[in-house]
Amino acid sequence: MKTKNFTSVGSLHPILFFAVMYLVALVFAIFICSTLFYSCNAKSTDITKQQTPVFKKDKAHKNLAFK
């Protein structure tokens, strides 16, 4: 009767699965945390501060024209 030989990779399958899942979760956590960090520390723009258009005198027509 021949004995069956199994490789040790089969017994390591749960450990390898959890190690890979840990690395995937770690990469996603770093990505999500860095996205939240940069969005919270972004320079805010004030909507009420709008630039007024700059006018210049058009010498040919003596009218106001946009720059």
User: Strand-and-helix sequence, N→C?
Assistant: HEE
**What coarse outline follows from CA principal-axis ratios?**
rod-shaped
Low-confidence stretches: none
Biggest sheet statistics: 2 strands, antiparallel
What's the tally of helices? Answer: 1
Proportion of residues in extended strands: 5-15%
What gap, in angstroms, lies between the N and C termini? 95 Å
| Helix content percent band | 40-55%
Broad structural category: alpha+beta
How much is the radius of gyration in Å? 33 Å
Quick recap:
By secondary structure, the protein is of the alpha+beta class. It has one helix at about 10-40, and strands spanning about 55-60, 65.
Break the fold down into its secondary structure elements and pairings.
Layout: H1 9-40, E1 55-58, E2 63-66
Antiparallel strand pairs: 1-2
What report would you give on this structure?
The chain has 67 residues and is α+β, with helices and mostly antiparallel strands. It is 48% helix and 12% strand. It is built from 1 helix and 2 strands; from the N terminus they run αββ. It has one helix at residues 9-40; strands spanning 55-58, 63-66. Strands 1-2 form a two-stranded antiparallel ribbon.
Primary descriptors:
single chain, 67 residues, alpha+beta, two-stranded antiparallel ribbon, 1 helix, 2 strands, 48% helix, rod-shaped
